[in-house]
Amino acid sequence: MTVSAHSHRGTQSARRVSQYIINMFVRPDRQRRGVGARLLLQCLEGARELGVSKLALNSTDEGRHLHESAGFRPTQNWMALAVPPNDSSDVEPKR
Question: Per the structure, how many domains does the chain have?
Fold first, then answer.
């Protein structure tokens, strides 16, 4: 898995720009086994390492519980999460 952050404002750090998780899928025969939680945790850890301050994603009905358990909250258009700083260990989705 690769997590990357790109600033849309030239040389500004990724910390100043919200980032978006585009796609995250788990095969149906692998669902409900913690695979999605591990993938999401990797995204959150990668975002923290890159200094991202906020993540957003679109959630399916099936994925909403996982995203909410990780701290994402619904907004008008998607779900968003304020990414804790690098010294925080509070990024693991709750089951």
Answer: 1
Count of alpha carbons within 13 Å of 44, Cβ hemisphere only? 24
Range of the domain at 75: 14-82
The number of beta carbons lying within 10 Å of the beta carbon of residue 48 is 19
Tokens of 27: 């095969």
Nearest to 1 by CA among 33, 34, 47: 47
pLDDT tens-digit map of 34-87: 999 999 999 999 888 888 888 999 998 888 999 999 999 998 878 888 887 766
Helix, strand, or coil (residue 61): coil
Phi, psi of 41, deg, nearest 5? -60, -40
